[in-house]
């Protein structure tokens, strides 16, 4: 009798468990092959769709259709997988299928694993060509010059409000439009090579430092705070400089070989940033859309009230409003607004026409699928 058989005879419960484990693993192997076949079958159908799109000169990236796919899947999902896991799986399936038609170029504020990069991955998946650039302005310029198909830029943060650099670039390049939005839950971490008491400088993007100001003042009061272009740049500096730390993502810690000294150091547990996907293409209506505009009005009493009353009369719900100084000789403001509905909806079209009569200038920045939950 072999030692294996002898052990099995001495432990029948263990033998039954081992047999059951082999049986379950065999089921998984069989299911894996079925999943692989179905994924490739789906990719084949997507490739056929791509041929039809190519014949009709239609766009490869369709945010409205991708949102519809995710909605259909998640509405029928019964578990046990977490909905976020299911969303991530189908995001990558769609990303790979889309790449059979065309590998998209997506510009973002880098380096790798900045929050702009994470937002780009959340929207487009990994099967794209990511273009890291050094500023929000450079993202706009790369898209405007058609060096990139799309760009991902931050619009607003729940703690700090508007991102001024993004709004400024919409003023400079109003021909670019918003094709989609991404809501990303932001969790900051203190990253370093050294121990906490050795930290003398903390680097990060201004908004990230602001979102952690109370925590930093209590826990590293001896360190000076230094603003840099992105959280990714901060992580690079923390890796190179003795006594330096960064406020950045967990993914940045892995990428740059840093220790996570403290996690989730943001002052608000509900901290999130909304990003815009910018490009040249218009997005079809889905029935769950938002429209973004910017407008300027005469400098006269009640002008803003009259402009906003258009939305009240049209029973259109505003979801965001910001004022921003215009680049004009005399003091003047441009207003950025987004609201529920698509510009092709009857009541939205009617409201925009009425608003045009109230404004010196009105620019529609795009209609796009509404993101209801942060990733």
Quick rundown:
Among the domains are: 1-58; 189-263, D-Maltodextrin-Binding Protein, domain 2 (3-Layer(aba) Sandwich), CATH 3.40.190; 283-369, Alpha-Beta Plaits (2-Layer Sandwich). Helices cover 44% and strands 25% of the residues.
Question: How would you describe this protein?
Answer:
Strands 1, 2, 3, 4, 5 and 11 form a 6-stranded mixed β-sheet that branches. A 5-stranded mixed β-sheet has the order 8-7-9-6-10. A 4-stranded antiparallel β-sheet has the order 13-14-12-15. It is globular, with a radius of gyration of 25 Å. Helix 5 (115-124) links the parallel strand 1 and strand 2 (129-133). Helix 1 (3-10) crosses helix 2 and helix 2 packs across helix 4 (83-101). It is an alpha/beta fold and 375 residues long. The N and C termini lie far apart (57 Å). 44% of the residues lie in helices and 25% in strands. Among the domains are: 1-58; 189-263, D-Maltodextrin-Binding Protein, domain 2; 283-369, Alpha-Beta Plaits (2-Layer Sandwich).
Features:
alpha/beta; five-stranded mixed beta sheet; single chain; 375 residues; D-Maltodextrin-Binding Protein, domain 2; globular; Alpha-Beta Plaits; six-stranded mixed beta sheet
